[in-house]
Amino acid sequence: MFRRPLEFLKSLPAHGDLVEIRLGPLRAWVVCHPELVHEMLRDTRTFDKGGTQYDRLRLLMGDGVVTCPHAEHRRQRRLVGPAFRPSRVAGHTDLMAEEAEAVCRAWHAGQRVDVSAAMMAMTTRVISRVLFSGSLDATRSAEVRRCLADVVRGLFVRTVVPLDGVFRLPTPANRRYRHAVARLHTIIDDLIAERRRGAARDDLLGTLLESARDDGGTMPPAGEREVHDQMITLLLTGVETTALCLASAFALLARNPEAERRLHAELDTVLAGRTLVAADLPHLVHTRNVVTETLRHSPPGWLFTRVTTRDTRLAGHRLPRGSTVLYSPYLLQHDPASFPDPDRFLPDRWLPGRSAPGPRGAMVPFAAGGRKCLGDTFAMTEAIVAVAVIAGRWRLRRPPGPVERPRPAVTLGPRSLVMTCEPRACGTTVSPARADAPAHRGDGALRVPEARTAGDHDVDDA
Fold first, then answer.
1. CA angle at residue 322 from 316 to 326, to 5 degrees?
2. Which CATH code fits 5-447?
3. I need a labelling partner for 400 at 20 to 30 A (CA). Which of 39, 93, 204, 240 fits?
């Protein structure tokens, strides 16, 4: 599990639909069948956020909307959720396009670019503008990215080696991890303190601070500690996963020239070199399919844990209260029974009108049920916009040499992807809207089904 986690996970279905493993002294169960995963994710009372992964995440993030227990989740989601409604996300499309353009504006022909670092810089700027109205300056943005690199490496080790004593030792890795965690909390505290001294702003931090001052209303307001926990949770979860998805997308496109050619043709037709706006999103069908297939092929969130809150049965086996249960989107989405030829990058799997691949629950990059990712619409929109803007201007090529194998940490994706820039000449005409384009509202927002019924087969809801 520690040395070759992806290969290990893919070997488990041969042993059954529910497989017991050992994480050091801890017994845990890996759910290998998509319908069982779906059953587990729907029952959030019995299978709550917990286990070694969330125990470590709570030390980092506190009890924000991602890590809080079931009893607190509904209230927190009602508090934070309005900022991620489709109409609000559509309103952020312009700033997403601005930041994508800014990150590639200075590139030049033949330049070697660290795409992973560039995507991290872009997503940090985007989430900073949404959460803090851009108060996270360049110096602190760079420090956040450095701290995140140390945190994601350390979190995976702490998930699969649940021995607290090992991580109290003053090793260089442990010191780097503790320093990174402390600095992230300090940065958030500084941003909150600066906002209290300054003028109110219409962003998520402003919404939470206003809630903390609220004396009435039907919903309990956010407490002072909760404001901090929500900010660090959304900052950390809103930066790296989307950046890794984008880096994976460009790496996969470079290895699949036909998918890349069709992407460029669509962008030249729909955008014709002009700036992307929200109303363009429903017409970027192949671009969306590229992002969706990237999430299937290389899901940034590849391993998650739950803990049982009572004695229960799953797949005919008794699980006592307090059992650790794991599921892996990577495992489910690389099962050939669900996705034929799973290691191939095939965006056409997601063409409109095609039957959903795989059984119920096979595609879960954003989870499902009541704890489905709050920011799924935001992340999908940001990824589509970034791919469209960057690929509309540049073709990214891998330099000769061996391709780095995936090295999972708490997230999965290329962490040092160097590619060479080739400028592209864009088309000059805009085609009319296609009849087979997804339905959309006048504000350009993509339709999102209610969270409890989403996440069955694909990410069309995102």
1. 65
2. 1.10.630.10
3. 240
